[in-house]
Amino acid sequence: MTPRRATQQRLDPLGTLAAWPLAPLIAAIVLCYSVIATVLQQSQIQNPLLATLAVLAMAAAAGILVLATQPANAPFDGRLHLAMLGFALLGYLLEQFSRWGGNLLVQDDFGPVCIGFLLLALAPYRPWREIALSGAIASVVAIVITVPQQPYYEITVPIAVYAIVSATQILAPAAAGAAYSRRIVRSILAWQEDARRAIVARTEETRGQMARAVVEQQIAALRSGVIPFLTELLERRSVSAVDIAQAGQLAAEVRRTLVAEIDRTWLDSVATRERAALTERGTPGLLVVADPDHRANAFRAEQRAATAALIGALCAAPGFDPHSLVVQIAGAAKPGATNAVQPLVDTMTIQAALDLPPRRVRAVLRPYLGVIRVVFDNVRVTVRRPSLTIEFDSVRASHAGDQADEAPATPATPAGVRARHTPRQVR
After folding, report:
1. CA torsion, points 89, 90, 94, 97, in degrees to nearest 10?
2. CA 238: distance to chain centroid?
3. What mean pLDDT do residues 357-375 have?
4. pTM of the full predicted structure?
5. Integer angstrom CA distances of residue 227 from 215, 231, 238, 315, 358
6. 95, 90, 89: which is closest to 52 by C-alpha?
7. 184 to each of 4, 15, 128, 131, 136, how far by Cα in Å?
8. Could you give the CA distance from residue 19 to residue 9 in angstroms, rounded to a whole number?
């Protein structure tokens, strides 16, 4: 995502969730104002049918705003933006045509005010350039539809005044929304850049300490078996058949430990952490991770954080079966990609059992799924009490030559089946 396409919702999903109630509030204001203005200005309406359709179109625009900004439908995409703007402009045009020849004032028309409020509500969800462009287009439409009605207005002023009044009602809130979007995105990007620099500096400082800690940990592991064995051999100065067999066992154990550490991913660490948390709560469980190709390592930092938070929420949810969680990652090339750099799709499937009504399950997971829908693609949630399945895709670029190394996608594992996994698939 380039800075031009960046939005607060994509950069700071949690902050956007906190601001979500403003969207329904603005939608309610738009709907109420359009209805009240139509009722109070009945004397100016020449065509009641068009006036009714104008209110309905504005209501549709407000409805799209509410639906598109809901956490369950994140992120707010460009098609919904165009649909909302289209219905709002349609409502404004129908309002003007319904009053053609009887419209006495420009400033009491609900169309420009409602369009401005709707564009203002897009500030956390759409890039500032698109908000500003939408405001400019709507202002041009307002000027074009306002100027021909000059003979009918009851106040006689230069024609430029009518154009300015009609356009300002749209441009002012649209400019405010665009300015907010631009400012907040730049602030978040600057904060992220500072955080990355601090992380790099901190990493350089602690790299030596981490290396020493790893060495000490490995030495401590060797002291429990290998070092005492070697010390005993040095003291006896002889090797027996039993010693040879014991050396083979110790070597195999060390090899297994090293391979397990090499194969360990951040997802395995999440599972280990949640197992420990379940044990502390007195409900030890078996959390299965199936990622034989280590595709979890390709996830971005925000994707890892969102996935870890979702798994933690599942394990802490009431009615959770601690022996039912299965996390599986499978990958495949994205269909239709033929260029040199082909996108790959890593699909993560999370299955669990939650003994809760489906509505309660969605309410518990709504904040986490709101973030998941922003940082991942094609999020699919299936709730059939007590079974819960969450699937989402992570799209990444890969050269065409890498496709041969991609393993075929593995079918999703049922939540209750664990014995069929091979040791290489389950850690």
Report:
1. 60
2. 64
3. 85
4. 0.64
5. 15, 6, 16, 40, 56
6. 95
7. 13, 11, 10, 14, 21
8. 10
Report the relative pairing of strands 288-290 and 341-353 from DSSP bridges: unpaired
Closest CA to 87 of 62, 50, 106, 113: 62
Quick one: which of 349, 350, 337 has its CA closest to 403?
337
Cα 83 to Cα 63, 64, 87, 116, 377: the distances in Å are: 11, 8, 6, 15, 21
Q: Which of 32, 16, 33, 29 has its CA nearest to residue 68?
A: 16
Which of 210-219, 278-287, 327-336 shows the lowest per-residue confidence on average (mean pLDDT)? 210-219
Give, as one character, the DSSP assignment of residue 421: S
Q: In the structure encoding, which two tokens stand for residue 287, read together? A: 């959390």
Residue 326: Cβ within 10 Å count:
23
Q: How far is C-alpha 355 from the chain's CA centre?
A: 26
Residue 30 amino acid letter = V
pLDDT tens digits along 228-266: 766 776 777 777 777 677 777 766 776 666 555 555 678
* 325-335 average pLDDT score: 80
- The residue to which tokens 């969605």 are assigned: 362
Return mean pLDDT, the chain: 81
Answer for the pair 138, 174: CB distance below 8 angstroms, yes or no. Answer: yes
Element (H or E) spanning 49, and its range?
Answer: helix 48-69
Q: What is the full DSSP assignment across 19-33?
A: HTTHHHHHHHHHHHH
- For the stretch 259-266, contacts whose Cβ atoms lie closer than 8 Å and that sit 24 or more positions apart, written own/partner, are 260/427, 263/294, 263/427, 264/427, 265/291, 265/294, 265/296, 265/297, 266/296, 266/297, 266/299, 266/304, 266/308
Read off the pLDDT of residues 108-139 as tens digits, 9 standing for 90 and up.
899 999 999 999 999 999 999 999 999 999 99
Structure confidence at residue 406 (pLDDT):
44
